[in-house]
Amino acid sequence: MKKVILLSSLLVLAGCSSTTQESGKKKAGKQPVSSLTYSVSKGSIKSKSRLNSVHSLQQAYQRWRGVPYRFGGTDGDGMDCSAFTQTMYQEVYDMSLPRSTYEQVEVGRPIAKDELQPGDVVFFRTGRSSRHNGVYVGDGKFAHASSSVGVTISRLDNVYWRSRYWQARRMIDD
Q1: What is the chain's Cα-based Rg?
Q2: Per-residue pLDDT reduced to its tens digit, 36-89
Q3: Least confident stretch, 18-22, 69-73, 137-141, 170-174
Q4: Is the pLDDT of residue 165 over 90?
Q5: How many helices and strands, by DSSP H and E, does the chain display?
Q6: How far apart are CA 84 and CA 90, in angstroms?
Q7: Nearest-CA neighbor of 36 among 54, 25, 49?
Q8: Which regions of the chain does DSSP assign to beta strands (E)?
Q9: Which residues form the NlpC/P60 domain (predicted)?
Q10: At the topology level of CATH, where does 45-173 sit?
């Protein structure tokens, strides 16, 4: 049964998961997309082709698009932002990221906003102690699990996201 998601102009975000539980079951029928080879080195992987990465990110996003937000969720019935980021990295790069946003912000290396490349992870401060993240997909946009619309793509220059932008981290080295 396909779920209908209504888009709202008001984005209200709950804090993303800060649990340390591992991912649960994956969306039925999902096959990992692994177009890159990598070597793990200080939390980073080396990509063979960033173009393959962009295409793979788009494919993975399309499989999860519209899945509703669910705090602590890790599957097609609902997922939170850190589970979405973790899932994208597992599918596209065959790389395991920690489960929570608070743990993911410790992986990779920090980069400036003007250095963003597809595959970088962007982080936001959405409340006093709440954090949110997503995967940069290029052209000033990032894919994430929004508490108001589910898995979607948003613009970094959107007034909400621009005012809450915190940092970005590169998990993939060229």
Answers
A1: 15
A2: 222 233 344 444 456 678 899 999 999 999 999 999 999 999 999 999 999 999
A3: 18-22
A4: yes
A5: 4, 10
A6: 10
A7: 49
A8: 45-46, 74-75, 78-79, 109-111, 121-125, 131-138, 141-146, 150-155, 165-170, 172-173
A9: 51-172
A10: endopeptidase fold (from Nostoc punctiforme) (3.90.1720)
The residue behind tokens 């996003």 is 61
Instruction: Quote the DSSP letter at residue 41.
Output: B
Which residues face 36 on adjacent strands? none
CA 117 to chain centre: 14
- What residue type is assigned to position 8 of the chain? S
CA distances from 95 to 2, 9, 27, 54, 72 (A): 30, 34, 18, 16, 20
Domain layout of the chain by residue ranges: 45-173
- As given in the structure block, the two tokens for residue 74 are 């890790």
**Hey, what are 111's tokens?**
């980069």
- Residues marked active site are found at 81, 132, 144
Read off the tokens for 38.
Answer: 């990598």
